[in-house]
Amino acid sequence: MISYRDAIERLLAPLSILPSETCALADATGRVLADTVTSPLALPSFDHAAMDGYALKAGASSRGGSEHHVHGSRAAGDVGHIAGAGVCEIMTGARLPQGFDAVIAVERTEMLQARPDGTPHRIRLLDDIAHDRNVRRMGTDVPRGANVLAAGTCIEPAQVMLLAALGVGHVAVVRRPRVAIVCTGKELQTGPTASLRDGQIHNSNGPYLTAALGRAGADVVSCETVDDTVHPYLEALQRAVEAGVDLVISTGAVSMGRYDFVPAALRHFGAQVLFHKVPMRPGKPLLAARLHTGPLVLALPGTPMAVAVGARFFVAPVLRAMCGQGSEPTLRAVLASAQHPKPGLRHFLRATLWLDDRGQLQARPVDQQEPFRIQPFANADAWIVLDEQAGDCAAGMPVEIASLELATPLRLSTGPDFSP
């Protein structure tokens, strides 16, 4: 038996970041940056108007009540020299003409005279206008050469917007972790539409892991179901090795029963067992090993919630380490109902979340925590994590929470500040 923290340390210690590859920005959503991105240009890339109005040079002649001739008009995308003094009609996003340093909003002016085509010829300012008013200066968002995104950042739509604005068409990303899934059990029926024979059940662990790993950015190379015997399991392991996977996840046959053959099978395969059994509920019999041929193996118990816990709290840290993302930040909520966990075990409880009247995040464990129950998992919002020393937990105390998904949806800034 090994503690959860020691187990995670043993899992992650030998791992290294996977190699990088080049990816088009259009295909980069969900990928992890392999290198820090440095801005190739400034944002904005030129001084421009923040609103529709009139560009002018601020000073004594630009006070409220002053009158000005309008020399030309500039829309976004227009270039060229604007001749003459006075003011220039300008639209939002248009480059500020040379010699001008402020913009007055069109609604803060009065048109005194129009040209035959309806364009303004002479206006009066209703307000004083100061230097830099309503002007977006070059580089005020991102200076040229600034570090804008750190290695290890997961590219989401917000990052795509930034990279696209910088004209970045390709990025270096970490290769997706390649994963093979092996589900054990002669009772498992892999076709969801197939009829079940007596004693059979539909395989839910395989589809769950495939979906969860895919959403977390892994490349699921295969998902097999094998019998409760050694040789089919070893053959599936061999196929995974030949496919060049980084991680093998198996479910079932890992405890102490007569048909729990996985520990012996892994030793027969020449694997180095890192640990077997972690004091936690659910999922205590979990086993981790490393094959001499390369891949890490995580053998999870077959009960659905043991698989979900193994995926969220063991597989997810492994995937993050392989992608160079480091550990997740700890999130907390207020416990809404008292809990009395068994001493010495780390408990993972499915829970619902809500904000109370004071804006505090509340977490309530669902009523039915048995590890075979899938419906409460589908209705839950998060996991509550009670560590081995939690003891009796009163309502109102802060507790650790974690998202249901392997990839944490809430991104907190815990590393270097890359803002300009």
The CATH superfamily of the largest domain appears as MoaB/Mog-like domain
Give the uncertain stretches in residue-range form. 413-420
Distance between the termini: 48 Å
Q: Which shape, going by the Cα principal axes?
A: elongated
Enumerate how many helices there are, as a single number: 7
* Biggest sheet character: 6 strands, mixed
In total, how many domains does the architecture comprise?
Answer: 4
The proportion of residues in beta strands is 25-35%
Average pLDDT works out at 92
* Name of the CATH architecture of the largest domain: 3-Layer(aba) Sandwich
Helix content: 10-25%
Given helix and strand content, the structural type is: alpha/beta
If strands are numbered along the chain, what order do they take across the biggest sheet? 7-4-6-5-9-8
CATH class of the largest domain: Alpha Beta
Please provide the count of β strands: 26
- CATH topology value of the largest domain: Molybdenum Cofactor Biosythetic Enzyme, Chain A
